[in-house]
């Protein structure tokens, strides 16, 4: 293969890279997010503890917040989430293997407003839900 053609093609690819990075789509995709892994939350039904679900989350940060600013507060976010899950469980009725993502997200955004200021966390994305037990689930009646 012609070495000059390869070098020229590589140079074109490098020249095009900054143009792609400055597109509006790339800027919105680059919003900072803080990952929170492995929070064990209870599944409570009928006043009894039925299971635990381990949840991995991604916190999308608001304007002016960086991951470096928010990382020291990760333990406070985890603590607030566990307390909220025990106070008002995020249980999906009839399913002991997953949690209500909308309720979980709303509780964590509200807690983040009091921990690190209003608008610091814009939304919470549930990346994974892994139940501790997959057997012994309720049957349909």
Feature tags:
141 residues; alpha+beta; 3-stranded antiparallel β-sheet; two-stranded antiparallel ribbon; 5 helices
In whole angstroms, the N-to-C terminal distance is: 70 Å
Across the major sheet, the strand order is: 1-2-5
User: Compute the gyration radius: what is it?
Assistant: 21 Å
DSSP helical segment count = 5
The overall average pLDDT, rounded, is 82
The secondary-structure class comes to alpha+beta
Largest sheet: 3 strands, antiparallel
Order of helices and strands: HHEEHHEEHE
Overall geometry? flat
Q: How many beta-strand segments?
A: 5
Q: Tell me the strand percentage band.
A: 25-35%
- The level of helicity is 40-55%
Given as residue ranges, the uncertain stretches (5+ residues, pLDDT < 50) are 12-27
